[in-house]
Every structure is written in structure tokens, then in C-alpha cells.
Specification:
Strand content: under 5%
Order of helices and strands: HHHHHHHEEH
CATH topology: Four Helix Bundle (Hemerythrin (Met), subunit A)
Largest sheet: 2 strands, antiparallel
Structural class: mainly alpha
Low-confidence stretches: none
Number of strands: 2
Radius of gyration: 16 Å
Distance between the termini: 27 Å
Number of domains: 1
Oligomer: single chain
């Protein structure tokens, strides 16, 4: 597929990557899932990070449009395209987290409920639920709404919904690659 732009394309690529993450993680042994290397997060850590980033977006997209506008205003710029957003993200990460500065959405901020004994199964289920809530919330927005409303990103500032979805796809795909790499 070409670079996503429309709501339908975004739903398709977000779902493709989300299912890919699920399949990759489910296929990992418990040891490969938890293995850390050279100061990098484990596959478990990357999945926790993705959950911590997708859940708030799904929750925000589930809000009524009027509430999103009331909380975050209207965009003062047109949506950047996918490539421009990816370039901005890479530059911003280097600016906000230079030389290993702590990431506020790091896996060590993830909290498991008491009594969880199979962390992998719990994280996979939590990921699948968050991913489905994101897709369901996105489905209710109109195409034009993606450029007419905005949400805050902790490192990148206010972004249109379309930009936030571009970011989410790029970010999820980036960390899916990381999961595959660190798990061998």
C-alpha cells in the first residue's frame, strides 16, 4: 500500500500493523519476550510502551467532537502529510530525548494489576483491546474531522487528528520492527 492518507487507508494500515504486533508477540517464547539487550527495551517493554501510547489516543478519540474542541481548540495549521510528520517526529525525538534522556512513556511506568501471573498473555490482551478501541473510535469520525480537530502529543505538541493517526501508524510500525529485532 502507498502512504496512508484517507480515514479508510488509516484504519487499514493501523489494523495491519496492530495485528502484526499481536502475531509477532504471540509467537515469542517467554524468554524472547522478556529478553533485554544492550540497554534496549525487551519485546515486553516495547509492547508496554505501545499500550501506554495507544490507550490515551483511543480514549481521546472516543470523546464527542465538541469536547475535543473545547479541550484542545482548533488546529491553526493544515495537516502535514505522512512523510512530513515522520520527519518531524524523528527530529523531535532527538530534540526532546537527547542522549538517552528518560521517556515519559517508558515501560517502567506501566503498572500491572495485582495477581497477574502471565504478563505476556495479559499484555497481548490489553494491546488487542486498546488497538480495537482505537479503530472503533476512529470509525465514528468523519473524514473532514481528521483535519478539523486536534489533540496534544507529549513530545510533538498539538497535532490534527490525521497527524496523530499518521504518527500512531509510524510509531507502531517502528516499534513492531524493534520487537522483531530485539526478540531475535
Amino acid at each position: 500500500m502507498t502512504t496512508p492518507h484517507s480515514k479508510a487507508e488509516l484504519i487499514e494500515v493501523l489494523d495491519e500493523v496492530g495485528q502484526g504486533i499481536t502475531g509477532t508477540v504471540q509467537a515469542l517464547s517467554p524468554q524472547a519476550f522478556e529478553r533485554e539487550s544492550d540497554g534496549e527495551w525487551s519485546a515486553a517493554g516495547y509492547l508496554q510502551h505501545l499500550i501506554l501510547s495507544v490507550k490515551p489516543l483511543a480514549k481521546a478519540l472516543a470523546l464527542p467532537a465538541e469536547q475535543v474542541q473545547s479541550l484542545f481548540g482548533q488546529p491553526d495549521h493544515p495537516s502535514r502529510d505522512y512523510a512530513a510528520l515522520a520527519t518531524f517526529y524523528k527530529a523531535r525525538v532527538n530534540q526532546v530525548f537527547p542522549n538517552g534522556a528518560p521517556n515519559p512513556i517508558a515501560p517502567n511506568t506501566y503498572r500491572f494489576p495485582d495477581g497477574i501471573t502471565d504478563k505476556k498473555a495479559y499484555l497481548v490482551q490489553t494491546w488487542q483491546e486498546a488497538h480495537q478501541r482505537l479503530l472503533q473510535a476512529l470509525a465514528r469520525w468523519e473524514e473532514a474531522d481528521l483535519d478539523a480537530y486536534q489533540l496534544p502529543h507529549p513530545a510533538m505538541g498539538l497535532m490534527t487528528l490525521r497527524e496523530m493517526l499518521f504518527f500512531t501508524h509510524f510509531h507502531n510500525a517502528l516499534h513492531w520492527d524493534d520487537i522483531q529485532r530485539v526478540s531475535g
